[in-house]
Amino acid sequence: MKMQARSARFLRSLTMWGGVLLLLTTGGLLLAPVAQQTHKQELALGLQLPPPPPETDSRDKLSRQLSVFIMGGLRTLAAEILAMDATSAWLQQDWPRARQRWEQITTLCPHRPSYWSRAARDMAKNAVAHVNSLKELPEHERATLAKEYLDQAEQFYLEGLAANPDSLLLQLDLAGYYEDLARRPQFAKAVEAYRKALAMGASDMYERWVFYNLCRIRGREKEAWALGRELFKRPRHHTPSVRCLLFALQNKLQLPQEERLSMQELFRTDERARKQLRSYLHNTLRFPVYGVAEYLRSPAP
Q1: Residue 288 region by backbone torsions, left for phi larger than 0, else alpha for psi between -120 and 50, else beta
Q2: For the whole model, what pTM was predicted?
Q3: In contact, 285 and 209? CB cutoff 8 Å
């Protein structure tokens, strides 16, 4: 009896999934144009609607097949299936297809921040890294393609935040995108993005990231010094990078001695100062190094 019951359940399951597959292979093909037309008619009547089904290329079989799920309200299921194909596109280094899938996914589920984040990262990191590795392409073509994917990544973040204005995940990801030295750093935008994240309730640890990015912006050294000086009043910010940055900034600003933090306040000992400044001098983070080499050349007290 138990074997018969299990066999019956298996047959019912097989029948159900067979029906789903049949709908995917035939229903979507027939209903995709209907879904778009229905949405347009409802919109004309002033109805409150979810986002319209994504526009699809007539040659894009998968999104056509998923139209029946979309019409049935199963947007999340359709999005997850498309996300699997986006992963497949990543494995095949097919970035136009990956981009198309993420555009469809975020249209289907605009209020899931993780989709926007994954979409942006796929473009900004994976697609750009692959484009830069194509040495058979002329340099200007690689640069053009990389810019397109970086622009798309930024658009995903900004549109994601427009749809999810309270998403701390997206706000911090956007800040990280703007300060990414391996891509297209925009330090002033990173400062503002981190400040918005702090206003949204991010850990005050990110105040240090505001400081780091201010230090990289020419003409804002005074603002950076003032913030760094405030941060240094709290022991949690007594990191080697903060110490060295404050040393470099007060040299750049040529502050009078009475306004400076002494070497003892910053590093406690000359030996420790030299050790940390020696490592800092050749940093690849675009941090200022004013006066560092001169101090290292000076005789120990």
Answers
A1: beta
A2: 0.77
A3: no
Please tell me the distance from the alpha carbon of residue 116 to that of residue 1, in angstroms, as a whole number. Answer: 50
For residues 126 and 76, the answer to whether their CB atoms sit within 8 Å is no
Phi and psi (nearest 5°) for 68? Answer: -65, -35
Instruction: Read off the pLDDT of residues 134-184 as tens digits, 9 standing for 90 and up.
Output: 999 999 999 999 999 999 999 999 999 999 999 999 999 999 999 999 989
Q: Is the model more confident about 76 or about 34?
A: 76
The burial class, CB within 10 Å (0-12 / 13-18 / 19+), for 225 is buried
Euclidean distance between CA atoms 101 and 97, whole angstroms: 6
Give whole-number Cα distances, 272 to 145, 238, 251, 296, in Å: 46, 13, 19, 12
Judged by average pLDDT, the poorest of 35-44, 87-96, 229-238 is 35-44
The token pair that represents 140 in the structure block: 């200007």
Q: What's the token pair of residue 108? A: 């289907």
Distance, CA of 72 to CA of 212 (rounded, Å): 49
Binning pLDDT at 50, 70 and 90, where does residue 218 land? very high
d(CA 91, CA 25): 24
DSSP the chain: -HHHHHHHHHHHHHHHHHHHHHIIIIIHHHHHHHHHHHHHHHHHTT---PPPPPP--TT-HHHHHTHHHHHTT-HHHHHHHHHHHHHHHHHTT-HHHHHHHHHHHHHH-TT-HHHHHHHHHIIIIIIHHHHHT-TTS-HHHHHHHHHHHHHHHHHHHHHHHHH-TT-HHHHHHHHHHHH-TTS---HHHHHHHHHHHHHTT--GGGHHHHHHHHHTSTT-HHHHHHHHHHHTTSGGG--HHHHHHHHHHHHHTT--GGGSPPHHHHHSSHHHHHHHHHHHHT-SS----TTHHHHHHSPP-
